[in-house]
């Protein structure tokens, strides 16, 4: 991924107990740093084993603040802090219908499923078949079988389960794809990395009756969106 250096692949040596301790330590660090505030997001990050969503030769790096390569074209799993960075401003919560654009390893998808609970729904779209297959296998192995997975152009959204309370894009775009805004419920929220020159801003869109309210949260670095509204 441009701007990041991946650690070298190696045989994993850590035990389940070591990973559990690292997961707890990471949640504590994210809380102290101010990334993590919501109790339901915190509970999800404590429960979902991130190491089970990492390619075999990178598992030992699961809780380090580095993106890691995934099967597929330029595919990565984001740093651990990226998930509360997106989900906290979204206000992702129980009962929400959630659309994820960019499935990645399936880790963020599993977190979202835990957060929205039994009455919520998670739909995730992935354009790359290799990335989709990897994530689908991870989700099945970890017991997440009620997530709607779609292979397709994420910029087009997924009309079959629209409208959504929350939409999360994990790839950078020049502008928010109009189909995603059309599939967002009134009072819904959408978050996405949006390009501005050589930089990317993490942008939160609130769909209010008086129009879209836009808030820039911080600068980020994500791979570019592919498809009709991307590269």
CATH architectural type of the domain at 16-167: 3-Layer(aba) Sandwich
CATH topology label of the domain at 16-167: Rossmann fold
Overall form: globular
Fraction of helical residues: 25-40%
Number of helices: 6
- Find the count of extended strands (DSSP E, 2+ residues): 9
CATH superfamily of the domain at 16-167: Vaccinia Virus protein VP39
Distance between the termini: 15 Å
Report Rg: 16 Å
Strand order of the largest sheet: 5-4-3-6-7-8-9
Element order: H for helix, E for strand: HHEEHEHEHEEHEEE
- Broad structural category: alpha/beta
Provide the β-strand percentage band.
Answer: 15-25%
CATH classification, class level of the domain at 16-167: Alpha Beta
The pLDDT mean sits at: 95
**Low-pLDDT sequence parts:** none
Main pleated sheet: 7 strands, mixed
Task: Please render the helix and strand layout as text.
Blueprint (H helix, E strand, L loop, with lengths): L15 H17 L6 H9 L20 E2 L6 E2 L4 H9 L6 E5 L5 H10 L4 E6 L2 H13 L6 E4 L12 E6 L8 H5 L1 E13 L2 E10 L2 E9 L12
Helix pairs in contact: 2-4
Structure description:
The chain is built from six helices and nine strands; from the N terminus they run ααββαβαβαββαβββ. It is an alpha/beta fold and 231 residues long. It has a domain at 16-167: 3-Layer(aba) Sandwich (Rossmann fold). The strands form two sheets. The chain has a seven-stranded mixed β-sheet with strand order 5-4-3-6-7-8-9. A two-stranded antiparallel ribbon has the order 1-2. Helix 2 (39-47) packs across helix 4. The protein starts with 15 loop residues before the first helix and ends in a 12-residue tail after the last strand.
């Amino acid at each position: 991924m441009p701007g990041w250096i991946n650690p070298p692949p190696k045989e994993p040596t850590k035990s389940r107990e070591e990973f559990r301790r690292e997961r707890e330590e990471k949640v504590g660090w994210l809380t102290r740093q101010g990334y993590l505030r919501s109790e339901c997001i915190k509970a999800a990050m404590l429960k979902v084993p991130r190491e089970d969503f990492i390619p075999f030769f990178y598992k030992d790096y699961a809780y380090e603040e580095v993106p890691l390569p995934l099967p597929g074209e330029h595919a990565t799993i984001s740093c651990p802090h990226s998930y509360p960075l997106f989900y906290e401003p979204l206000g992702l919560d129980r009962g929400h219908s959630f659309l994820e654009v960019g499935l990645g390893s399936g880790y963020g998808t599993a977190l979202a499923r835990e957060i929205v609970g039994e009455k919520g729904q998670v739909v995730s779209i992935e354009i790359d078949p290799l990335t989709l297959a990897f994530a689908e296998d991870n989700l099945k192995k970890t017991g997440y079988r009620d997530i709607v997975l779609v292979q397709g152009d994420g910029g087009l959204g997924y009309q079959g389960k629209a409208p959504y309370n929350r939409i999360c894009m994990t790839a950078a775009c020049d502008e928010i794809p109009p189909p995603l805004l059309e599939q967002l419920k009134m009072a819904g929220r959408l978050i996405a990395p949006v390009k501005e020159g050589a930089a990317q801003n993490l942008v939160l869109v609130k769909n209010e009756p008086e129009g879209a309210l836009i808030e820039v949260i911080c600068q980020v670095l994500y791979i570019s969106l592919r498809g009709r509204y991307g590269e």
